[in-house]
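From the shared-data thread, chain only:
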Amino acid sequence: MSAGQIAALIAAGAFVLLVLLLAIPLLKLGRTLDEATIAIRKAHENSDPILVGANETITHVNTQLERVDGITANAQAVSGNVSALSSVFTATLGGPLVKTAALSYGVSKAIRARRKAKGEVDGKHSRRRNRGSGRS
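Structure, as C-alpha cells:
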C-alpha cells in the first residue's frame, strides 16, 4: 500500500465518521418532528369541540346583545318621553308656578314691610305715652 492509498483510507474513514456523527442529530431531529406532528394532530382533534363550543357561545352572546339593543332602544324611547313630559310640565306649570312664587314672595315682603312700618309707628307712640305717663 502506498502513501496515497493510506491517505485515501484515512479520508474515507474520516468521512464515514463524519456521516455517522451527523446522522445522530438528524435522527433526533426526525424524532422531534414526528412528536411535533403527533402533538399538532392531537391539538387539531381536540380543537373541534372547543371551536364548536366557542361558536355556540358567540351565538348566545349575539342573542343577548340583540336583547340589550332592544332594551337600550326602549330606554331611549322612555328617555325621550320623559324629556317631552318635562318640557310640557315646564311649559304648562312652570310659568304659572314661577309667577305664583314671585307673587307670594312679593306679598310676604310687603306684609313684612308693612308690619315693620306699623311697628315703628306704634313703638314711637307707645314710647311717647310711656314717657308722658311716667312723668305724671
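The chain has one helix and no strands.
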